[in-house]
Queue: 3 jobs
Job 1
Amino acid sequence: MNLEGKTVLVTGSASGLGYAMIQAFAKKKARVVVSDINQEKVDQALASLKEEGIEALGIPCNVSDEKEVEELFARVVKETHRLDVAVLNAGILRDGKLVSVDRQTGAVKDKMSLAQWQSVIDVNLTGVFLCAREASAAMINLKNPGVIIPISSVARHGNPGQTNYSAAKAGVASMTRLWALELARHSIRVAGVSPGFIATEMVLQVMNQKALEQWQQKIPIGRLGKPEEIADTAVFIAENDLVNGEILEITGGVRV
């Protein structure tokens, strides 16, 4: 796909990986749409992009809210008259062990709450489902080829302390493959990105320095990934018409 003049929507794009993706697609002369949880975050992102010489459309959306997702895609189509690429990136972290045990007494002292579990599932799994549903419906109705890029994670293989997050990202990977099969007849490709540990604000704020150093030691290249490295992968998927049904793991070799 030649991205020039194409409409590219990235959810969760006011900061971090999503923002880097907006920048990367804009460099390809695509018309980019920023979407995030609230208007203030979207406005801040639009202002920053404008300083970089990038004009973008901004639409707030809580991806776990079905009505808001429907309105998001309806507005994108209304204002740009097309939808070519949808990157489903919005996600949250609410880490915690399934059960936490007191080292001195050996008794359970805490448990992952249902709210802690559900909040991540709602955004990271249900949100991807809702956005993929509306993106594919829009592309089919517009009768134009499209690309849907769900963002999974290396945590889909199971990461201690992330029961909710790992389950959601495994689900995203599974849906990516089955959607590729379902939607190919409609000229819609679906392929995902599975990042390793990336130096985003979300990761750096959640993990302490000791934990970051421990993870860096597990990565053969000896460093965390950069947001732009994941963004370039998303652009590659959009541009390469043979990529379909794949989950591209970009991890620096952490699973080698």
Job 2
Amino acid sequence: MNLFIQGHYIITYSLMYMISRYDRYGNPFTQIVETGRTIFINKSPIEVLAYSLRCIGCTLDGAIESSKWMLKMEKMVPIVANPFQEVVLFPTRSLTHEDSIWFNPYHIRRTSNIKGKTLIILSNLSSLYIPTRISSFNTKIQSVEQLKKMTTEVANGTFTMVLESEKRKEVKKTNTKQKD
């Protein structure tokens, strides 16, 4: 396994997961595990996401807001990390929690329950054991798939979303009364 230390990183499809670490002085850095290498970045995972999104013309705040709006979720939303390569990541904990691991579900081959925790088998046949219930973890994977499908269909012009349906009903009722 090759190790690289870098000052920045752009998220691509090869990212399997990233996790926050601390050096011996207490400074945060991110361990990024790709299919064939491990990279260390001298930023937190959320800073890696923000930098990567900015480099492709997006913002982290915009990506979070879009995910919350499209999925109607408030917490632990998946993030479209690279719309050009359709990379969507999800955190195991809150977006800013220092113990959160960010996964790319494209590389998750299998999940198993072991004593109330989750064993994750990745595409390169490595594995991780995390202190999260398998049902919670698999629900997060489903949220990613839903967001990925919605954003892909919107980009291709095949998805229709009804917004503020309650207001539309009120307008129809008002228009009907005026005609009488």
Job 3
Amino acid sequence: MHHFLTSLEEMAERPPRHMLLLYSGGLDGTYLLQRLRDMNIAVTALNVRIGESEPCSTAEEQARMFGVRIRDVDVTEQFFAEFLPAAVHADAYYQAQFPVGSTLTRPLMARTAVQVASELGCDVIGHTSTYMQNSAIRLSGSITALAPDIGVAAPFLGSDLSRSEKLTALQGVGISFPEGIHSIDSNPWTRVIECGSLESPENYLDESVFRWTRDVSSAPDEPMEISLTFDRGLPVDIDGTVIALGDLVERLNALGGEHGVGRFSGLEDTPFGVKNHEIREAPAATIIIKAHQVLANAVCTPQEHALRGTIAREWTTTVVHGGWFSNLGESLARCLADLDRPLAGTVRLRLHKGSLTVLSVNSPNGLYYTRLGQAFHEWMNEYSYTPWLSLATYPSRLRRSGKVE
């Protein structure tokens, strides 16, 4: 059984009976379609849409050029219903640097691929991730967890071809691609830009790569204030108007981007230790996660807050490395959602020239002094402080006394 095919040579030696290829019309996928045709491997292409309103016409046209059927599946609704809420509950930032993006979409793409592959009777699911991309394990790990009997083809792990080699091969069959040097991976939550001049973190950023966010120098001089209301840890209302999560993300991307909020530059660890530089735009993610953190701080007990921070970091690390559908990943996600049940209330924020300032937080479940009011004050008046101080200081007093070292 060919469970993993990690090079073009392996695919030629042990060809799948019928491959389902995750395909969005890009250079790598189109080149792989050409190679699969040359190997006489039966293939069906699958374009998984997350946030795009219409099917990708380029993907359809190029698949047809190789005589390949293409399936188009829109999973935007599942993204907002299942995958994005888990990231909000976890305040999911990669190594506390920037909001995660493909970490959320790759498991959903893999699940969709497994469903379609099972329907079509495919024995292998293919993708084009390289050894420099964490998506290799996110896709492969998710596919294997959901369908252990379906093989995974990731030929560009072992077959490392340059962009120019792929372009030249496709030009030979009449297919051309723009000469753009940047790789862009976009979904409703994040827009990630890498490669080209961005590969080195030592280079100054090229302003032209940004699409969602303004530079702070051109952002409006007047600040904007917004209020977000949460229920059970998820945002449900903006400025007094109930709104679906997908619509809220779209609106906050526009508002935050206009005011220069949500730009990131950082290094992501690759599977083999080398770091990959990437630029990220995520206005809505920045705003929602900040408000969620503030609300959690107001509502959670110290023990709950410490525990949810630990679990959130562990969940984020787990799913970044392909464990979305693992028992650990699913258990941690359920725990975070459960800890978020009391998180209800409104957070008011100011957006101004790249800054995001918390103005106020109001929660019916808040543990802050002014909300608890007179009852708490009266209870504290009856409290005896001597036993508390005696117990709290006992270890240090014991050590100072010389009775223990």
